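Render EGF-like domain-containing protein in 3D.
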Amino acid sequence: MVNFCNLYPSQCFNNGQCAVNLSLNTTYCQCDLCHEGTFCENEVREQTHFNTIYVHWIISIIGLCFSILNHSLTLELCICCRQIRGTNCGIYLIVYSIVSFISNILLVIDRTVGYYSNQKGNDIFHCYVGNVGYNMFVYLCIWFSACIAFERGLSICFGYKMNANRWRSLVTTIVIFVIAGGSVTPMLMYKCGWHSRPSLKIARGFFIWFYISGGILIYIIATFFILIYFTRRIRQYGVENDSFIRTFLKLLYTHLFIFVPPISYAISYIPFTIVFQTRNRDYPYFQCGISIGEYIVKILIETLQGIPFVITWLLFVYPSKVYMFEFYTNTWAGHCIAWILDFFE
């Protein structure tokens, strides 16, 4: 029998290996994971040897479990403590918890349907639930967390009574929801078909930029107010022997809870933004030929983006001494945790 691989050793492209089918006495090409076709002439750009849909589904379920725990603790505090639910920050915190919890539920539903159904027949559902629904609630979370920081800045720096003008938080909440609903309406009408409609693609990019930059701007303004407050307080410490820097750090430490949410958002979003923007644009995020180490790192970096929306209690309640005092005093969960801590001490 003639070995045709010896006669035509270069018939396979892209390092494909020629093989012989002994029963048919024919040759074929054995391609690597990143090429396909009769002669391995076609490039596969996205990896297929790791089940990314399954990994995303498992991660979303784990995130939902943490979300249930954190949001339950937060809502219990806000509902049981009248002094918190009667403030603007309390209203924002309640809305943030509900919106964040809904976003996690939508993510799990989208991942579950995507895992158990055919991806091609799931495009419309993924558009409504995964793209439009989930992202809208995520951007709402960014805005409401920024509103919490801004309200705290007003109360700390300018002495605003947090429960005197609750209408401000109610009106702000309604306005934010109206803007969010109007921004996603074109996406729903055209079923996320922005790739084939340049005007819709521009509108989508504008609203994404508006929600992210708007939330960041509010954080910057709130931080500016707090720094002004620190400067004023430092001037009042003129009779103390501490240096200017030491006094500033002392005041910063006592109000560190205000900076926890923006720091967490920066840690969550900056790594993914850097990796995603610096990658080769001709290849997807999980490109073919990716190693298991790089795959795990990219999964972790991608997962970081959803962390702030599942740890509400750790972001807004735990860093605050006032909230934690009310938590241990007025909530059933706080009483249980306090009893456990006293038992081990």
